[in-house]
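Lab manual, section 2.4: Encoding a predicted structure.

Procedure: take the sequence of the chain (200 residues), apply the prediction step described in section 2.3, and record the output as C-alpha cells. A sample record is shown.
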Amino acid sequence: MATAQLAQLQGTATPPPKRPTDFPGLLKAFQSEIARALPRHLNPDRMARIALTEFRKNPRLGQCNPRSVFAAVVQASQMGLEPGLMGQAYLVPYKEECQLIPGYQGLIELVRRSGKVRRIEAHVVYERDRFVYRTGLHTVLEHEPVLDGERGEMRLAYAVAEFDASGDAYHVEVMSRRQIEAIRDRSQNVQRAKKHGKTT
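Recorded output:
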C-alpha cells in the first residue's frame, strides 16, 4: 500500500491546500499567469501591485466575482496595458462581473505599438477657430485655433492618423458635437448617473 494511502487511512494525510476565493488571493496564487501574459516591457510584480491598488480603490469591484476581476487583469496583461494608471485601461464593475475597458490612451498605445502608424492625434475645434474640412479624391483639413482670447463654444473634434505604410498617408475622422454627445449619452456610466440623478 502506498504511503499516501496509508496515511489517509490513519487520518494523518495532509489535506490539499485550499484554492483562494478572493481577488487578492487569486492575484498572489496565480501571479505566474500574469507573468506569462505580459509582454517583455512590463513587470509582473508592478502589474500585480497596480491591479491590487485599483481593486482597493473601488469598493464595487469587491462585489464582483473575483475570477472576473482576475480575468480582466489577465486581459490587460495580454494587451500590455496598465489598469487605471495614465488612463490606459479600467477595471469596470458591471453588477457581479468585472470588465476591462481600454481607455483612449491605451488604444493609442496599441496603435503605436503596431508599427503601422507614425503619428496619431486629436483636437477640438471651437466657434472662433478657422476650420476647413473637405473630402473627395483628396482630403483637405485645415485648423487654425484662436491662440489669444476666448475661442467660444466647442463645435466639433477630429483625429488624424499618419501611416508609415504606402498608400493613403493619412486618415481623418471628424465628429460634430452632437455626434460626440450622442455616443457619450449611450455609455452605461452616463445612463447609470441619470438613473440616480447624478452627473458624470
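Check your result against the sample. The radius of gyration is 25 Å.
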